[in-house]
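It is worth pausing here to work through a concrete case rather than discussing structure prediction in the abstract. The textbook approach is simple: state the sequence, then state the predicted structure, then interpret. We follow exactly that order.
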Amino acid sequence: MPGLELTNVGKAFDNAFAIRDVSLNVGPGELACLLGPSGCGKSTLLRLIAGLEHLDAGSVLYDGVDLRGAEPHTRGFGLMFQDLALFPHMDVFGNLGFGLRMQHLTRSAINARVDELLALVDLAGYARRKVHELSGGERQRVALARSLAPSPKLLMLDEPLGSLDRVLRESLQTQIRAILKQVGVTAIYVTHDRDEAFAIADTIVI
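Step two, the predicted structure:
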């Protein structure tokens, strides 16, 4: 099956397994949600897929290619953390263009891609806004746009709405799902909130 394939994945810390025998398939364009309480290994699994942690057991394949030993930057995956990690000294354009500059795109290509992304997340005209001038929801959408900017094969979102109040979370859930479906990116979304999982996911993994 094309897409992401995990087979009997395991990871141990100090001789104790944080993850054991996890097998999972996520097809192209699918939005899968990892649902579970804090400390159950959801974020560790994302880090294994991203290559930020090394496997102690099992395998991770994407489109049939074994990723064991592949460096994170060679995998073509995106990862959006709860703390967003926006660059405070850059404006919105600078944040969205950062990954594109790393791809050595021309200035005109970067400008066009940033405009496209801002329209996608309903923030057209915000390119020169400073990060501190944005609301919590606007920062979330900028972070999502930045994660999508390099056109990742797989996007992983680690509790991206965890720091927001419930009203704003519920508003953004629908927006995030619509954006990811419009782009068609394969995605894994981590949350401990059952309602959030049901609102966003095609498939829920407990």
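Step three, interpretation. The helical segments are 42-50, 92-102, 107-120, 136-148, 166-183, 194-200. The CA atoms of residues 44 and 53 lie 8 Å apart.
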